[in-house]
Amino acid sequence: MMRLIPAIGVFMVLSALAIDASAQDRSLSERISDQIVSHAAEFIDVHRDLHRHPEVSGSEVRTAGLVAGRLKALGLDVRTGVGGHGVVALLKGGHPGPLVAYRADLDAVPSRDPDPVDFASETPGVRHQCGHDVHTTIGLALASALASVRADLQGSVLFVFQPAEENATGAKAMLAAGVFGAGKPVAIYGVHTSPLAIGQIGTRSGVLMAARDGLRVTVSGAGDQAGAMAAAQAVVMGVSTLTPQQAFQPAPEGFSLVQLAAPAPADGELTMRGSITVAGAAARERVKEALGKGLGAIAVPGVSVSYQYQDRVIAGVTNDSGLTAAAVANLTAALGPAAVPTVRDIFPAFSEDFGSFQDEVPGVFFFLGVSNAAKGIAGMPHSPAYVADEGAIAFGARAMAVVLLDRLTGR
What we know:
Elements: H1 8-16, H2 23-38, H3 40-52, H4 61-73, E1 77-82, E2 86-92, E3 95-105, E4 109-110, E5 126-127, H5 132-147, E6 154-162, H6 170-176, E7 187-197, E8 201-202, E9 206-209, E10 211-220, H7 225-238, E11 256-260, E12 264-266, E13 269-278, H8 281-296, E14 304-314, E15 317-319, H9 321-335, H10 354-358, E16 363-371, H11 391-409
Parallel strand pairs: 3-6, 3-7, 7-16
Antiparallel strand pairs: 1-2, 2-6, 4-5, 8-16, 9-15, 10-13, 10-14, 11-13, 12-13
């Protein structure tokens, strides 16, 4: 079994980070960095505990309990049961300032793939194969570090630990339950593990992850329903700019990808359901226009064709341009340009519901590198051999501290 240990080089980089700010702020950032680095081993233990005990969407009882317990021990104002098993914690700084938020997701995925680490999942058929255990641990490490300097901190930080990301219901449920009841943050940030190399954190302005829309086509009447549905299938598939084989290949913004289930008869009608992955608002409007024209033009005697289109069943991620530019500039100053690559393409197979929070609060989502070629670690989420280099935990917490501190101080 593979044993993962933190990369010494990453911690050397972490301990050397500095922010171009006033002497007081620089001292604060150094104290935060020191806290993260000095407690790195503790949070690797937390990560391994979470990894051994994964829970699927809607069942995150133990995970939420561990998170809430650690946050309460830090003296944060903690709410539990928010939108299911969601946990929300408020850290109040000692000086006036804005409210910013960090979001992490809690759930794991059903998986029969062997877990290639020596702290493997102890829950049969469930595994942290997407890195949510890393995201959660980063949030806890970040909360611990910021709590250690709270007396000197400007503003407040809201930590949002979200359940049910994998089935794309958790963000909407937390919003409906008043996740921002104590006040809306001025910005929200989050990370997701990625195949980038350890010591890198990348992002881009605008669409980072495509949204998934829902489609339902219904054919009714005494005429040739099968013929009308075949015509409808041709129209729907015609709006796709990608083939299913291209789902795991990088694509530029503006694509659309259609996935359809087989038509099913019910109550004298024929119904077809599907999803349409779209990268950007312009792509969605193009798809809607083409569907309206194409489906509306189907003329089969004795048959009517209707359809329902649901925007953003999974919201995707669209980063705020101003916040992205500020975060990238600050991270680049702290880490160096090689550590902050610009993400050029979008992978159609992957989506995220972080965008539901971005509907309410502007925000930025980042891809955190967890791959390490020297160790044979390739951190592609949901792949059978997925593993995250645990050095990414301290690096990710330190990088997010840079971003949050910058936004809190208003630079």
